[in-house]
Amino acid sequence: MSERFVPLLDARVRAVAAPAPGQIEAPAGRLTDQLRRPLHDLRVSVTDRCNFRCTYCMPKEVFGREHRFLPHSQLLSFEEIARLGRVFVAHGVEKIRITGGEPLLRKDLSRLVQMLAELRTAAGGELDLALTTNASLLARHAAALARAGLKRVTVSLDALDDEVFRRMNDVDFPVASVLEGIDAAADAGLPVKVNMVVQRGTNEHQILPMARFFRQRGHVLRMIEYMDVGTTNGWRLDQVVPAAQIVERIHAEMPLVALDANYPGEVARRWRYRDGGGEIGVVASVTQAFCRDCTRARLSIEGELYLCLFASQGYDLRSLLRAGASDAQLSTAIARIWSGRSDRYSELRGQRQAGAGAKVEMSYIGG
Ligand code: SAM
């Protein structure tokens, strides 16, 4: 077991240790952490594999032919994910996002979608069930995913210029195939948002073409500040284009009006075009950190619970699951972990202590 894990079965970790059998008092219902942040969203990474090698996420130099991905037995099974999902939902989670790696590389993903779509929120409603994908396999799977109960899709696309996009995904994948995936999802009735990571000197000149194109297509475009996730992408602050500059550029050509968040803790700041034609969002986790509103937990491919995208340690729920823990024990462990949460990495960026543990990679815990 790697040092990344906080072993919940280990009695030394008293703060989050699993309760002994017979002493279970699962705190039911909604949870808040030390900063009074509720648990609202769960992101589930279903594979560490990806068929892209985006230079800012899984650079080839690190994730090359020699890289060993995890064997299937290490991954949570769909049944394990759905079981944990049920416990999280009982604690107030209303939104689950399936991600990775590239989630559509996981065989038969629609089966997981169907299992999660059957869960009901604490209020008895349907879950907001979303998928983040590079869309390389979306045209093939969109209809089945929609039939299985998926509610919407976020597609990652960093440029419309084919040459720029091929360079960024670093596997020579064409823009046209991503657009086919987007169309297939829309045809299947799935609302589509498009995520663009903006990197200074790489694709910032694509901001306006992307905004024009997706406005015309009727899909929400969300531009994301390049973040210092993981340790392998060689992130530098001067490669970040601040969200305020992104908004200014678009506003100069297509005037924008600020919109309220759809719900507290929404990641993107929203804007609509003043003439009524569509919406954009910016995710400013570097220049305008939003830790105080963060309501997201992340479940890694191996079943560790991470409390922050920038965390260096997760809590090992898989061992609990595989040691035969009851739902009540799982529920108690999750409640204790969330209740103890106090992280706010992005707000403290720059104050990170030398010698702090290595941050986990995004492909491992999911974007
Ligand atoms: N493979 C899927 C995809 O491409 O959407 C899901 C996983 S990917 C890690 C999820 C999202 O994280 C993508 O939109 C990707 O662009 C974004 N991402 C990865 N590394 C990032 C970084 N350093 N800064 C900002 N966004 C990043």
Structural overview:
The longest helix is centred in the first third of the chain and has 13 residues, at 78-90. α1 runs parallel beside α2 (109-117), α1 (78-90) packs across α9 and α2 (109-117) packs parallel to α3 (138-148). The chain has helices spanning 78-90, 109-117, 138-148, 162-169, 175-187, 207-217, 243-253, 317-322, 327-339, 362-365, and strands at 5-6, 41-45, 95-99, 128-133, 152-156, 192-198, 220-225, 256-258, 269-273, 279-283, 296-299, 304-306, 314-316. A hairpin with a 4-residue loop joins β11 and β12. The chain has a 13-stranded mixed sheet with strand order 1-13-12-11-2-3-4-5-6-7-10-9-8. The radius of gyration is 20 Å and the shape is globular. It is 27% helix and 16% strand. Mean pLDDT is 90; it is low at 11-24. By secondary structure, it is of the alpha/beta class. The protein contains 10 helices and 13 strands.
Record keyword descriptors for this entry.
binds S-adenosylmethionine, alpha/beta, single chain, 367 residues
